[in-house]
Amino acid sequence: MKAEVKTLDNEAAGEIELAEAVFGLAARPDILHRVVTWQLAKRQQGTHKTKQRSEINRTSKKVYKQKGTGRARHGNRRAPIFRGGGITFGPQVRSHAIELPKKVRALGLKCALSAKQAAGELAVLDGAQLAEPKTKALASKLAKFGWRNVLIIDGPGLDENLQLAARNLPNVDLLPCKGANVYDILRRHQLVLTRAAVAELEARLA
Questions:
Q1: Rounded to 5 degrees, what are φ and ψ at 186?
Q2: In 3D, which of 170, 111, 160 has the Cα closest to residue 131?
Q3: Among candidates 125, 106, 95, which has minimal Cα distance to 182?
Q4: Among 206, 171, 176, 205, CA closest to 193
Q5: In the chain, domain spans
Q6: Closest listed residue to residue 117, CA positions, set 198, 11, 56
Q7: How far is 14 from 3, CA to CA, in rounded Å?
Q8: How far apart are the C-alpha atoms of 125 and 5, rounded to whole Å?
Q9: At what angle do helices 195-205 and 102-118 cross, to 10 degrees?
Q10: Which of these, 153, 75, 129, 197, lies nearest to 205 by C-alpha position?
């Protein structure tokens, strides 16, 4: 399939052929859901923790004698039943990551790209470079396209001026091609790829 190529100034810059195997797949919400769940689970820190009975720093002296008080039997104040005691079945440090085959991850990325193409939310730029790191200049260029919520994916490296200019713009994300992922593609309304990004994605996924 063919796609129109524009410059960052919204001028025509020819056409590009998009691979059907990467940008022309049928919609697969189930695959997208699996990949997004895998991504979000993997990035959880899992550092939340409560202290168990053995980790509480309190006296181990018996609270009161075993018999004759008419009260329940207790060993010491570390017991979970007491205020300041240990926590029973509280969260412990662990990994939340789940496993997902590489082929499913690759299919998810292709489905996300295809979904954007099918919805008319994919644009291709000849390049993504700015002459100077000015946020106002980048905002005016994006306004010409009507892009307010956009993810721009470039080739192996990002233009430094573009990165500096985009820092203060809300809902504008930049990623090198290596960092392209399903979650970031789906969370922005518009996906913008450069020629270099298209070539690298097709080499990686086709």
A1: -75, -25
A2: 160
A3: 106
A4: 176
A5: 2-44+97-205, 50-90
A6: 198
A7: 9
A8: 5
A9: 140
A10: 197
Tokens of 151: 């993810």
pLDDT digits over 164-204, tens only?
A: 999 999 999 999 999 999 999 999 999 999 999 999 999 99
User: Smallest Cα–Cα separation from 87: which of 61, 60, 48?
Assistant: 48
Structural tokens at position 199? 């070539």
Residue range 2-44+97-205 in CATH 2.60.120.10 = no
| Residue for token pair 């079945």 | 89
Residue with tokens 């022309």: 24
Tokens 């998009």 correspond to: 18
Query: What pLDDT is recorded for position 206?
Result: 79
82 burial class (0-12, 13-18, 19+ CB within 10 angstroms)?
middle
Whole-structure pTM value: 0.84
pLDDT of residue 10: 87
Over the stretch 50-104, which tens digit does the pLDDT of each residue have?
Answer: 999 999 999 889 999 999 999 999 999 999 999 999 999 999 999 999 999 999 9
- 3-state secondary structure labels for all residues of 177-205: HHHCCHHHHHHCCEEEEEHHHHHHHHHHH
pLDDT at 1: 86
Q: How far apart are CA 205 and CA 193, in angstroms?
A: 15
Integer Cα distance of 139 and 178 in angstroms: 25
What are the CA-CA distances from residue 37 to residues 33, 94, 99 (Å)? 6, 17, 11
